[in-house]
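Troubleshooting log. The previous structure file for this entry was overwritten by mistake, so regenerating from the original sequence record. Sequence copied from the archived sheet and checked twice against the printout by T.R.
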Amino acid sequence: MARVILVNKPYGVLTRFSDPGGRPTLADLVPVPGVYPCGRLDQDSEGLVVLTDDGRLQERLSHPRFGKRKVYWVQVEREPDHAALDALVGGVVLNDGPARALSAVRIDPPELWPRDPPVRFRLNVPTAWLALALGEGRNRQVRRMTAAVGHPTLRLVRVSVGDYHLDGLAPGQWREAPPPSRG
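Regenerated output below.
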């Protein structure tokens, strides 16, 4: 039976198990051999990473052809209007091709742990939070998409991948989860 581990990756940790440069990795958080990440989160992003020892499950959760929904809470500069949100869903052109969100909505600031280091604060530039859902996960895609509509990302937290959710995991914590049913 497949082993599935959910981990809340803190800011500054690499989504891999080794780094020749000695930077923090998942190996510093999860002492479980033989599991691998289903997709990546950038070093400066936080939140849910799903680990498994099952190659087929890893592919189903990470490959765009399976369209697994990934939800991100994104703090952006300035307050996006309806046109910016519509553009995220309608599609923006990035240097590696078009990209579109499955949904993009404004949300109240979520109750999150403090980030270390904190997000830069600018007295004269308001911020807003979005819940952004994607069916794929290209390199720095959320950050590039929000920048394309004029709202650079300040903080990015992935809260779900498919049926797996971050619920109740503090930064650096992990827990086992049941594998998905094959039905």
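Helices lie at 55-62, 82-90, 141-148. Archived copy saved in two places this time.
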